[in-house]
Amino acid sequence: MFSPEDFARLQFLVGRWKGHSADGKEFYEEYGRPAPDVFQSHRYASAAFDGRSEGSTISFKDGEVISQWGEFTWKAASIGNDGAVFEPVSAPARFEWRRIDDATLEACQRWTAEGKEQQHTVRLTRV
User: Can you tell me the distance from the alpha carbon of 26 to that of 39, in angstroms, rounded to the nearest whole number?
Assistant: First the structure.
């Protein structure tokens, strides 16, 4: 069970970010907090932050923190001042946010394929 104060620790996500996807293409994300119980992200193809294509929502309700992206859902397992771990509810992988410093985040996905644990990390820098 999480508290509203725990949920507020995700504030490090808020802002505009640049990253590179697994195929090497640049992408841009913007995180906001439109309500005390919601963080919302949107993805953009360019640094102009126009023409958003997709996004996700992290919400707090009844002590649970749930992340949703399209048809995928995760539930927070831990939240700290500099990171959070989300376990899959209906998703192919777990993911973890790590705040490296005020200008750098890492998003690490982990999953099992062909009997081996796989991992992909994306570094995001504040724009």
Answer: 23
Task: Give me the sign of the Cα torsion angle 44, 50, 126, 32.
Answer: negative
Q: What angle do CA 49, 33, 104 make, to 5 degrees?
A: 60
Q: What are phi and psi of 52, to 5 degrees?
A: -60, 145
Using 50 as the pLDDT threshold, list the residues of the chain that sit under it.
none
- In a 3-state reduction of DSSP, which class is residue 8? helix
Q: How remote is the C-alpha of 46 from its chain's centroid? A: 19
Which DSSP symbol is given to 27?
A: E
pTM of the model: 0.92
Residue 21 has a pLDDT of 84
